[in-house]
Every structure is written in C-alpha cells, then in structure tokens.
Amino acid sequence: MAEKSVKAGEILARLDRIPIWALSYLFIGILGMGFLFTFFDIFDINVSFIQTSLTIFHVSSPASPRIAALLGPAVLLNLIGYIIGAILLSPLSDKIGRRNMLMITMAITGLGSLYNALVNDYLNFLIARTITGIGVGADLAIVNTYIGEVAPSNGRAKYTSFVFLFSTIGAGLGLWLGLLLTTPPAPFPLGLPVALGGSGFLATNGWRVMYGIGALLALIGLILRFNLPESPRWLISKGRLEDAERVVMGMEERASRKLGQLPPLPSVIQPYIVEKQSYADSLRTILGQGKYLRRLAVLIAMWFFGYMTVYVLAAGLTTILSSLGYPPPEAGIIASFGDIGFILCALTIMAVGDRLERNRWTAISVLFTVLGGLTIALARTDLPLSFLGSIILFYGFNLWVPVSYAWSAESFPTRARATGFALTDGIGHIGGGIGVVVVASFITALVSSGVSTSLAVEVFLLIALFQVISTVIAVALGHRTANRRLDEISP
User: Fold this and answer.
1) Residue 416 has pLDDT above 60, yes or no
2) Where do the TM regions start and end (predicted)?
3) Cβ atoms within 10 Å of 411's Cβ, excluding its own
C-alpha cells in the first residue's frame, strides 16, 4: 500500500504542475450545458409563472397577490427537491464516480421538466418542480466538484466561472423566452412587440413550451456527457492508478503542446486512498474531523443566508415588481435586463476571481446588491434607470456564487468532496426556500396597505439583508484556499 501511495502522490504532483486547463475545451461546453439547463429551469418560472397561474391555477388577474402566494410553495418544493438530490444523490459520486452520476442527474432533471410541461393542476406542478429540483441539486454539486478536481490550482475560480457563464445563457433564455412565449405583445419597453403569448396556442400553453424546451436541453446535455473522462483525482482516491495516469498523461500532452515545457514537479503529497468508501464513511470524514466540521458550519451558514437573497430575486423578481405596481410585461422586461449583470459577473470572476481570497468576493457582491435594489426602488417610472438597477442587482447577487462554488469544493478531501459540497450547498438551499416564502408573505401583507416608493425601498433592503448576514459570516469566519493545491488544502 505504501508503494501505491507514493505512486499516487507522483501522479497528483504531475497533475498539480499543469498551470492551464489541460482537457479539451469541449468538456467545459459539455459541463456548461448542464449549467445552462439548470439555470434555465431556475429562471424560466420567473416570467412564465404568471401565465401558468392564470391558465391552470384560476387566478383572476396578472397583478393578483395570490400569484406570489402560489409561487412560494413552488419554489420551496423545488428547493426541497434540490436539497434531497444534493444530500442523497450527489454523494454517490464519491462512490461510483463523477461521470456516472452526471449522467444520472441530467436524466432526472430532463424527466422532471417534461413532467412539468404536461401537468394540469397545482399539485402535479409542485411534484414536477420537486423532481426537477432533485436532479438539479445533485447535478450542480457534482459539476462543481468535477471542475475543482481537474482545473489548475491557480484557476479553480476562473474555470468554475467559465462553466458558470453558461448559466447566464440559461438564465437569459429562461427570462426572454418567458417574455416571448407567455406574455402578450406590448410596445417596448413595456413588453416585447413580438411577444407571442397574447393569442392562439401560446396564450394558454406558452409556459408548457418553456418546460418542453428545458427537457430538450437536458436531453442534449445527457448525450454530450458520454464523452466526459473520469476525474483523475477520484480515480486516484479509489486506487485506480493506471486509469488516472492515462487521463493525466493526456492532460500533460495537451498542456505541453500549448506551453512547450511544463513547470517542474512540486513536492509529492501522498494522498489518502480508500478503494471502498460508503456514504457513512464520507460523513465521518467530514463530521469527525474538527477542521472539516468547522468549514462545513461556516459554508452552510454562508449559503443559507446568501441563498435567501439569491432565490427571492432569481425566481421571484417579476412577481415582486408586479406586486409593487408594475404591469407584468414591464416587470418581466426589467427582470430580463438583469441577465446582462449576470453575464458580467461571470466574466469578472473569469478575469480576476483567483486574485482575491474567496470570502472577499462576498463583501464586494453585497454592495452591488444593495445599490441595484435601491436603484430599482427609487426609479419607479424611470424605465432606463430601472433597467440599470436590474443589471446592477443581478451582478451583485450573483457575483459571489461561482467563487463560493469553487470555495466549497476546495474545502473537503477528494474521498468526500462531493459529499461535503452537497451538505453545504444542499442544506444552504433551505435558506432559499424559506426566503421565498417569508418575503412573499411579507410583500403580500405590505401591499394590502398601498404601494409607495418607501415600501419598495423597504422590500429591497429586506431582501439584501440576508446577503449582508451571509457576507459577515464568510468574512469573519472563512478560511483561505485560493491558489493552493487541493491536497494541501484538504488532505
């Protein structure tokens, strides 16, 4: 076993000396398709849920506060499914491999989205959202684990953000297709002049087409994932050294063609090899060691409060704006402009994300969230200012996310990395569900007494408050991981 451990350490050293992305960039696209579908699924409900409510939930008006009340359980159960998938399914990748589980999770998400397209009542809508959430929760955890294990030490945040960039495309598709397919035409910027949701089949079924598109995206992602190689770090952790060396040799060859010569080998860190590891063993690794347990507690608290802000805005901004007096098409347009900020945040982290410690980005992020929310609240009828506010808002509440994905994956050892990520991200999502329900109830109560600028300010400050708490936790208690070798951070 000692000889095997030395050999494993040498392979890891060879992997860690590669300073660039050394797999085919096609694989980033393949992983990105999963993110694209995932965020399409998260954001497609933002605009389309109003039509869904009018069509099969028998809501009388697009501005009815009842829509916000119906949205809360739909998002909450989707997040409960997410938590179930993250905590119960994604840890299986520590046992059977990253690639195998990525196939399974994408199949589940696609089936859930197809079910969503076919439902005819609120109960089945909730069940479909739960099934989709199960697949999404597991998929996000495994994708981020995989990226963290194959990216260079000086670029884990960068390449996590590279994949995250696809999520901005998915979010944009969810928002803009929702406007196109589920809202009536209206002169821009009050809506889309070419919108198709005002008559014919799409007037009552545009939202079904949205979920059908989601199922198609999942199918494409599933087919592409057959080409993914297994994570060499996972192979090493299971003692499959020949398979791991084969993958690493391919990475070295690709990197050598680009760089000419590879850097010298770093010191050898002998990894922990366990050929058979159960879920209980992974839990013991994390919960039984003080270092990992402390990291788990900090990351869960950070995600819990941060997701309260993220999901209120990601799933419900259109509904919130409608409740505050905006016509639904106009509210949807304002929310859709936010995707520009979403794209800018991914590009920012790709460019400079690894230059700062992970927790510093949470502080930068929350400043933009507060600024964007206040801009929208004070803009009122000034639509260009509302658009600017939406861009700033989306930039703010998303900026910390890809960095924190990398941070969570880095914080646990290879033999339990997916399990650790699943616990932090999965339990953290409980905050997202609670946030949607609590804020929806709060807005419904306040709106009943009349809408005003001061009310809008209060609403957006309340939403941002949760992210402020998340930031304080991350900055005060967070650990350092940037630009260090994985097996040095988490042996």
Assistant:
1) yes
2) 20-40, 67-89, 101-119, 125-147, 159-181, 209-228, 296-321, 333-352, 361-379, 385-407, 427-447, 459-477
3) 26
